[in-house]
UniProtKB/TrEMBL annotation:
<protein>
    <submittedName>
        <fullName>4-hydroxythreonine-4-phosphate dehydrogenase 2</fullName>
        <ecNumber>1.1.1.262</ecNumber>
    </submittedName>
</protein>
<keyword id="KW-0560">Oxidoreductase</keyword>
<dbReference type="InterPro" id="IPR005255">
    <property type="entry name" value="PdxA_fam"/>
</dbReference>
<dbReference type="Pfam" id="PF04166">
    <property type="entry name" value="PdxA"/>
</dbReference>
<comment type="similarity">
    <text>Belongs to the PdxA family. PdxA2 subfamily.</text>
</comment>
<keyword id="KW-0479">Metal-binding</keyword>
<dbReference type="GO" id="GO:0051287">
    <property type="term" value="F:NAD binding"/>
</dbReference>
<keyword id="KW-0520">NAD</keyword>
<dbReference type="GO" id="GO:0046872">
    <property type="term" value="F:metal ion binding"/>
</dbReference>
<dbReference type="GO" id="GO:0050570">
    <property type="term" value="F:4-hydroxythreonine-4-phosphate dehydrogenase activity"/>
</dbReference>
Length: 341
């Protein structure tokens, strides 16, 4: 049976509504799953009125079981937060931040109640969300809090390259302190389980070093000797197929070439930069992004969460130029995880 995928609209002032409608307009989406949008009908109707060529209608439902899940119809849970007559697109606002948070909260509740099989999130704006009184660093922390999860991590994926992180939204100084044996071992275990949930029977895991050249046997730091390498050895003792620590300056090229199924990165930018170098392509002549690809997945949760790996792009909102590829990739990952979990 096709899986029900709950998709948030994202901050309504950004490109989330646009890429959602573009994705829902494709028949292929309905061949793979039962997509359910969670957002505001006022925002959806605003864009549908501007783009009648989509030929989409809205079916408002109060629960996933009421959905029609037929191409040409958007099944929508309408939270009724946005007053479209007073709403401003392309700007940070408390209303937009609150709406984005409430959409996420709703899909989490539906997933925990097992009314949907997986969740997919469109981008929210952290400034807007915090201005609305929801004090989280991002989606990952919302999911961890609302599901009561202590051990979790972010995974980014694009093509052959998958990366999980020991730490994310903290200072670089704090990131170094968080690279402990216990945390690295937890992330290795989570990475192994995630790959198996994607259908990879014997995942090949690589663990990056924290310091240049993995510390050169202590010359540039001892984190590898005292924390990271012992975690790798402990994981091997559990039967996990893992190598490390390995120099980060060459590791990601090897993983992208197929040598490894997933990389454990020590901090936010160590993992994000190689992923976005591959997935984000800027066209200098046109002054616009030629491609914005990649998927963000939160691992270790009791529910499935995949997301686009880009922001709200307020500067593009309403221009109808945003690409839906990252959203489609996130939905594909959510389906795969739901089918194998």
């Amino acid at each position: 049976m096709k899986k029900i995928i709950g998709i948030t609209l994202g901050d309504p002032a950004g490109i989330g509504p646009e890429i959602s409608l573009k994705a829902f307009a494709k028949a292929e989406l309905y061949e793979r799953c039962k997509p359910l949008l969670v957002g505001d009908r006022s925002v959806v109707d605003y864009y549908l009125a501007k783009h009648p060529e989509l030929n989409l209608k809205v079916n408002v439902v109060t629960s996933p079981k009421e959905g029609l899940y037929q191409h040409g119809t958007i099944d929508l849970i309408d939270l009724g937060i946005v007053d479209i007559s007073a709403f401003k697109f392309g700007q940070v606002s408390e209303v937009g931040g609150d709406a984005a948070f409430q959409y996420v909260k709703k899909v989490i509740e539906l997933a925990l109640a097992k009314e949907i099989d997986a969740t997919v999130t469109n981008p929210l704006n952290k400034e807007a969300m915090n201005a609305a009184g929801h004090h989280y660093a991002g989606h990952t922390e919302i999911y961890a809090d609302l599901t009561g999860t202590d051990k979790y991590t972010m995974m980014l994926a694009d093509g052959n390259l998958r990366v999980v992180h020991v730490s994310t939204h903290v200072s670089l100084r704090e990131a170094c302190d968080r690279a402990t044996k216990e945390r690295v071992l937890d992330v290795i275990r989570i990475a192994d389980k995630a790959c198996k949930n994607l259908g990879i029977k014997n995942p090949r895991i690589a663990v990056a070093g924290l310091n240049p050249h993995c510390g050169e046997n202590g010359l540039f730091g001892r984190e590898e000797i005292e924390q990271i390498d012992p975690a790798v050895e402990a994981a091997k003792a559990e039967g996990i197929n893992v190598e490390g620590s390995l120099p980060a300056d060459t590791l990601f090229s090897k993983a992208n070439g197929g040598m490894y199924d997933i990389v454990v990165a020590m901090y936010h930018d160590q993992g994000h930069i190689p992923l976005k170098l591959l997935g984000f392509v800027y066209d200098q002549e046109k002054g616009a992004w030629k491609a914005v690809q990649g998927v963000n997945i939160t691992l270790g949760l009791p529910i499935i969460r995949a997301s686009v790996d880009h922001g709200t792009a307020f500067d593009q909102a309403g221009n109808w130029t945003a690409s839906e590829v990252s959203l489609e990739n996130a939905i594909d990952y959510a389906i795969r995880l739901a089918e194998n979990s």
